[in-house]
Amino acid sequence: MSPNPVLPEKLGHVVKAPGETGTVKIVVDDLSGLQIAQFLNEHVQEMQAIIPSSESKHALDLDDLRKPEITFWSVMDGATLVGCGAIKRLDASHAELKLMRTAPARRRDGIASILLEHIITEAKRMGFTRLSLETGSYEFFLPARKLYEKFGFDYCEAFADYQADPNSVFLTRHL
Fold it and tell me: Does any domain span residue 42?
């Protein structure tokens, strides 16, 4: 696998969070491990069960997540994967928050907030001045939308290659 040109210089970031070890570590992940493959497969299955329309599904598969314009992080609590997130470079100043997921057993533990703060910091460090995202409009996605609002994201029109869709909402934040 060729090196990802947008990889942060610092491969690991240790932060205090609820968990067995008292800290979690956020690391750039090359998506080669079985644990992350299973974690992402569970995510895709969950999204397929929630979102009725195939046109409204925007999840990337493992091959797409390995592309050079994607930077992917895993959140580890010891040896246990508890979350993940990714950004996709859209252009020199604009990135898309492409994926965020917390292990179901760790939801409401602060993992998503820690990861989102890390991603925003890294996006700024990479030189992006805008970070946008698409998420679902269903009730299931309400906690995610509230999290993004808490971190300063505002609702916006569809961006990049997205089209207006009643199953999607779009948010953006200037960094």
Answer: yes
